[in-house]
User: Fold this.
Amino acid sequence: MNIIFIAVNLAFALLIAPVIDGFERKIRARLQNRQGPSILQTWWDLIKLLKRPTVEPQGSIKSLYKLAPYITFTAVLTAYLVVPTLLPSSMNFIGDFIVVVYLLGLATLSFVIGAFSSGNPYAQIGSNREVSLFMSEELLLALIVSTIAVIGKSLSFEQLFPLPLRISSALALILLFVVVYVASARLPFDIAEAEPEIIEGPLIEYSGKHLGLLEYSIFLKRLLLYSLLLNFIIPIQNPIRLVCYLIGIVILSVIYSTFEAYYGRFRIDQAVKLMKKLSAVALVVWIIAVVGW
Assistant:
């Protein structure tokens, strides 16, 4: 039965992740006094891309360039086996929190390698930005994971969902809220496509189904991170959990898209500097958790 529930969670994620992006595009458009596209527009865009042939750039390392979108997509999708979404079912084992962090790291690494292997200097400069942001983000995430592990005395989601109400758990979740935003490829920290700028980001050379897979991976990663954050907060009992989860997804989408609508893009040094300051705060929160508050 658990396998069926996990399959339902996977199907929910595959279906809803692009719809959430469409919903957020609609909110951003309304905040900027525009009509905006339909909330299904992201799905139509993905279907169009997945039907189109791919173009391989000359001078690229073709094996890495072609393989990267599939590894990125598979890594993010695999993480859904461990993080519950619609139903509170997942593959629980000791250290599954660490596995999710590694899978997300693998997805980012593969994404960056694909861009580097394209041979386009602008894609490579965009990848440098991704790597810098990823490294600073990983330090903050490692401190948050350590804090949550101290609070829950475990690295298994089965023991950590939901976290007990303490000062340290509230502060750790606020920091995780920021990390979810940064890791979701959003302004002002990062965006995979930046058409108004010379450096158009790591996706510049990708086209057709490869581009569709990478964009799909970004939408799936956002929903995965939303689910991870919400599972630390919402009660585990159904049907209360189901209602809280769906309301939580809508609230996070509204908050994050509102932030994104009103901010320009940070320079990479500004983004890294902010992440370093947050890492120092996370270290203090870890000490508070060790003390037992």
Q: What stands out?
A: The mean pLDDT is 84. The longest helix spans residues 121-152. The radius of gyration is 19 Å.
